[in-house]
Design brief:
By secondary structure, this protein is α+β, with helices and mostly antiparallel strands. The protein has two domains: 108 residues, 3-Layer(aba) Sandwich (Aminopeptidase); 152 residues, Aminopeptidase, CATH 3.40.630.90. The protein contains nine helices and 13 strands. Helix 8 packs across helix 9. The two termini are 35 Å apart. It is globular and about 60 Å long.
Amino acid sequence: MQVTTRPATEEDLGPATRIVQDAYNDVRVRHGLPASIALGPPLFQAFSLTEPTSSLWVAEAEGALRGFAFSWMRQRFWFLAQLFVRPGEQSQGIGQGLMARTLHHARENGAENLALITMAYNTTSTALYIRNGLYPREPLLRLVAPARVVAERLGAAGLEVAPIEPWPASRDWLSGIDEEVLGFHRGSHHAFLLGGIAARAFRIEQAGRPVGYAYVSPTGHIGPLAVAPGTDTAEALKAVLRGALEIGSEQISMIVAGRADGTLAAAFALGFRIDEPFVLLSSRPFGTWSCYQPSNPGFM
């Protein structure tokens, strides 16, 4: 089978999303988990397709897509959002070929750090990334809880939340928090979320001053969430949860880093349990992960 790689087009995004869903669920089933991942329309991929700092590639053979890779960059930071090969067609060099394309894009754009998030139980992919110079740095846990249980246990919060101002009025303080927590700003990502993707966008406040932000999806998933170092992360989470419960979703979920002691302790006291383990890999350490909760492995 002759496999070729080429830049993805808008018409490729639907079939590519199906590859991501099928491959993700295949890995879950092979590790004893239910095939429960249902991806929505490729809104973030379509948004990124128009950005010159993003790179989207497909692997194709015999008129059908066999794999998909998608990366984005902010300043000198490069992130591999997705790299998936159709089930049954792994171990044929397709994944490494796509990886080479995205890494070439990183080098062309002067990336100083490379990173990604993958399932912690996906040892085959983790080995591929290690061979390409990305190493495990941080355990991440996807947590879930019934909304009614959280509501019953949630008391008063020491911080407040308010709606984030429409973009670009909020650019300066959002960029300041991202620089402090992650080491780079991601303005266009905030513009994307504030353009109607998130059901709620919260400015976390202490004495009327912004100390963080959080987005909540229509399904009750929290993330990304960031708070300035020195902020009480448990109180920030409680404030965001009060707002998230207003959406009316039956379940609340989020991804929390292993070193976020305060957040994890608060979450488990509120009834959260571990749903799925992930791991952050990067070419060098970055970020204050006790202060940041990613949205998902693709958006970070």
